[in-house]
């Protein structure tokens, strides 16, 4: 049995199918007493005819302009370089409510805003990511490494931490604008 991801790859399947069909065509030609090069020549002639047809299409200048403008627009729209990121993008960890918290940022086209994602609390003893669980008694955080446990009484809800993060960004922005005044 053949194993590996490359066997199930669409590229392997499509190229393998083309090679197999070409080999079967050669075998068919050979069985009919046709020269093998005849099929190969027909395939090359077909590819050459397609290339010549494409090169002889009469293009209008405005078609090219519209295509060029569309390509430039799409490149600019979907290009997310570091220049597009706001100042707070690198603010991804902080000590909040006595614990270290880490998170990521993701742009949401739907909300037209940057959102906090992957918000994680870290153990105050060993800094391992805490496992968050909820029950009818409330939220709980457990450390898989040192068995630290925090119940509802001594931990913060993630939505509260998110509000603090956003407030920290607003405060820094406000402080920066007063310094520039």
How would you classify the helix and strand content by structural class?
A: alpha+beta
SSE sequence, one letter per element: HHHEEEEEEH
Radius of gyration, rounded? 31 Å
Summarize the amount of helix as a percent range. Answer: 40-55%
Feature tags:
single chain; 181 residues; alpha+beta; 2 domains; three-stranded antiparallel beta sheet; 6 strands
Strand and helix map with partners:
Elements: H1 10-31, H2 36-55, H3 61-78, E1 93-96, E2 99-108, E3 113-122, E4 131-135, E5 138-142, E6 149-150, H4 158-180
Antiparallel strand pairs: 1-2, 2-3, 4-5, 5-6
Helix pairs in contact: 1-2
Describe the overall structure.
The protein is of the alpha+beta class. The chain folds into two domains: 74 residues, no CATH class; 97 residues, no CATH class. The protein contains four helices and six strands, in the order αααββββββα. The chain has a three-stranded antiparallel β-sheet with strand order 1-2-3. A three-stranded antiparallel β-sheet has the order 4-5-6, with no helix packed on it. β2 and β3 form a beta hairpin. α1 crosses α2. The longest helix has 23 residues. The chain is elongated. The mean pLDDT is 82.
